[in-house]
Structures are given as structure tokens and as C-alpha cells.
Amino acid sequence: MMNLSRLEKLRLDMNNISGEISPSISNLKSLQLLSLLQNSFHGLIPDTICSISSLRCLLLAGNSFTGNIPNCIGQLNELSYLETTLKLRNNLLHGLIPQQLENIQALDLSANNFTGNVPADVGLGNIRYLALSDNKLFGRVPFSLCQENCELMLLDLSSNNLFGTIPTSFGNCSSLVYLNLGSNNLTGGIPEELQGAKRLSFLNISGNHFDGPFPAVVHRLERISVIDMGNNKLSGKIPEFIGDLKDLRILLLEFNSFNGSIPEEINALENLQFIGFSNNQLSGPIPEKLSGLKTIINRPKDKNLLGFIISQLYIGVQVNLVAKGLSMQLDMVGTYNNELDLSCNNLSGNLPSELGHLQGLYALNLSHNRLSGNIPTAIGNISLLESLDLSYNNLSGEIPVSLALLDPLSTLNLAHNNLSGEIPTSPHFDTLSRDGLAYIGNKFLCGAPDGIHCDREDFPTPESSESEHSEEQSGEWKMVLALAFAGYVVGFWGLFGVVYLVNEKWRKAYWASVDRILDGIIRCRKIRVSSVKPVIFSSFYLFVF
Hints:
By secondary structure, this protein is an alpha/beta fold. The relative contact order is 0.08. Mean pLDDT is 84; it is low at 466-478, 488-502, 505-518 and 527-545.
């Protein structure tokens, strides 16, 4: 290395190189940038690296470095006016985070095994980019993170064990663009002082214990583009002012206790592409007017990623969505990704025909509600739809033939409704549910596993069946009520035994009800670990927000 004393930049990224950094690295006296990203380096980071006074960019992410960070690391580039970047994410580093980091402007220690508190001094310098997510940090979020006139633009403390409340000092972070406190044990609410963060575009407080109504301070965050408040204890109504947030692209409120109706003002959000309201207590109809959701109607064809470039580092987002029958994670979210998920609520009424205007929609999940009426033919106009779940509702009538013409559709679930008639066919549509599970629980649907036979000349409907068997059902219900009364006397097993042994039809109905209840509980109450996570790269992508 003595012959490389004038070397200023050394990049060996993504070459699968193994080995350790030699203490003689200090001989590279003129080195300004050392980048060993995505290799197989291991061992300790030598203390001698701190003696390279010119080093201002140390990028060692994506390796297997172990041990502690040298305490002298904050002295890097001590005499230089240029920004200092330290990126050590996704290693096996542990111990405490060094206290003195005043000279570091961009610090990324995410995805390691650091313990202890978030250092109070870390916010006292000129730091702009601070990412400490996915560690084992505990304690409170330090009040010192946002001092007056601070330059902090990105703060990511997600996926740790932090507790307490959000400091009111965050209102001093007038330059803050990205705030991620998700997956911790924080309580309380969002302080009103946060309105001082006028540039805030990304807000994630999911996976905590926040309670109370939807935070009113959000209305004053005029540049907000991503809101994730999922998996908390928030309640009350979704406010009408949500329609004033014109830059909003992602709105995730799943796994809370929001009630009331979905505000019609959501139709004013032309840039909105992800709507996640599942697992709440929302009621009333789905808004009739949806034509204002321009980004979903006309899915962008570009390949732009949603994200930010801060201190020469790009940070994007990941979104968890329920599509194709599974919980899926998009590692990179582009302007072309979208979803509408209103599942597991108490929504009622008919499916609005304006759903057909959302031609660029990728996934539509309205399952586990109380929706009724026919499936509108206009849903067949959602020409790019790949996943459709309308299961566990009270939908009736025939399956529209237009659904069979959706070639992109790869997942379909219409189970447990009151559909009737024949299942439409097409070469592609026939492959969506060869086992018939997409149609189970529709006893008047010809071709469903538990439906009627297709060789009948006249297909019964729920209405005709009810008319033909009203007297029989009346007698059966009288018997059931009598048995229920007897159950209060002889106990549960007396009733269960009679129902189970006397009538096979009752027995099947009983177990079908049990299966339906259990399936609904299991599918609707899965706790979401997190929904929006950062993805950080050192290379540049289009700055969308």
C-alpha cells in the first residue's frame, strides 16, 4: 500500500471479495472515499482507519463486519468542510453507538445489532441523514435530535425497542423530509409541534401503541406524500381534510379502530396510488365517486421509483400489500404500483359502478365486509387488474362475463357470497381456480364445489329457494329455537349433541358456520408487522418526491 499513498478513491463494490481490512489501511494518506459495498468482508473495522485525515466517505454496507465501531470514527474528516458519510448498514456490528459523531453528516448504521440508547449527542452536530433502524436500541427518543436551526432531513429509528412519546422538539426540524418511527413501543400521539416540519413528505409511525383520533397536525403537513399509521390503537373517523393533502400517494391506516364512513373527499387525491384501510370498523357504503383518483385510473408507464435523495444517499420505500391471496412485500415501490384494500370492515351497500373507472388498478380487496347486490359489469373495465378478492360478503346475482375477459387477472376469490347462475368460462379464466375454492360457499352457483349441478334445466336462485322452502325452514327454526331453550337447561353439550345427531343438514350447516367464522377471524386479524420500510442504496435514482 506504500505505493498507493496518493490514491484518493477506492471502489470495490459488489465483487464478492472476502477477507479483512488490514490495519495498514492508514498508509493511504490521501484516501477520501473507501467503498466496499456488498462484498464478504469480515472481522473488525481497524482503529487505524481514523488516522486517514482526508477520509470523508466510508461505505462498508452489506458485509459481515463484527465487533464495535471504533470510538474515533467521529473524527473522520475533522478538518474538512466537505460532508462526511458513514454507511455501515447490514453488517454484524454490535455494542454501543459512539457518542461523539459531530463531524458526521450522513450516518447509516441500520440492520446491525447495536444496543443501548440513541446517543443524545448525535443530534448536536450538523447531521442531515440519521438511520439507526433494525437494531436493538431501547430507551426514549432523545429530545436533542432536533435542536433549533438543525439541518436534519432524514430520521429513521424504526424496528427497535424505543418507548415513550415523540419529542415536541421535532417541531424544530424545519428541514425534515423523512421520519420513520415504525415498529417500536411508542405511545401517545403526534405532537402539534410537528407542524414546524413544513417539508415533511414521509411519515411512518406504524406498529406502535399510538391512540386517540387521527392526528389533526397532519392537515398542516402540506407536502406529505406517504402516511403509514397502521397497526396502532387509533380510533374515530377518517377526517375529511384528507382530501386537502394533494401530494399524498400512499395512505395506510390498517389494523386500527377507525369507524364511520370513508370520506368522499378522498376522491380529490389525484396522486393517490395506495389506499389501505383494512381491519378497521369502517361502515357505510364505498364512495360512489372515484373518478378523481387519476393515478390509479391511468397507471403511469414510467419506471420511476418513489424515494428521496438526501446527502447523496437514495432512500426508497417498501410496501406490504395483500394481493393474490397472500401478504406480499414490494421491495421497491414505483409510480406504477397501486392497490385498494378495504377488507375486514363493516362496509355495506352495493359495489359502485365507478370502480370500473380505476382501469390501472393492480389489486382490489373488498373481502370480509357486508357488501350486497350484483357484481357490476364495469369491474371488467379494470383492464390491468391482477388480483380481485370479493369473498365473504353478501353479493348476489351472476358472475359478470366481463371478468372472464381480464387476461392480466391471476388471482380471484368470490367465495362465501350468494352468487348464482353459471361460472363464466374462457381459456384464461378457467385456470384461476381449478380446485373451485374461489367459488366455495355459493350454494346456488353452478360449478362451485358445494353449489348446484350444472346439468339441471332450471337453476334455482336464493329468492326461489327461499320461497320453495319457507315452510320447511320455519318448522326447522322452531325446532332449533326449542333446542336452544333446552340448551340453557341442559348446557351446551346437550344442545350440541341433539343438533349433531338428529339432522344431517343442521350438522353440515353448523360446521360450515364454524369454518366461516374461524376463517374470517384468522384472515382478518393477522397482525401486520410493518408496512412501509426503507430501502437504501448508494446509487442515484430519480428523485420523485
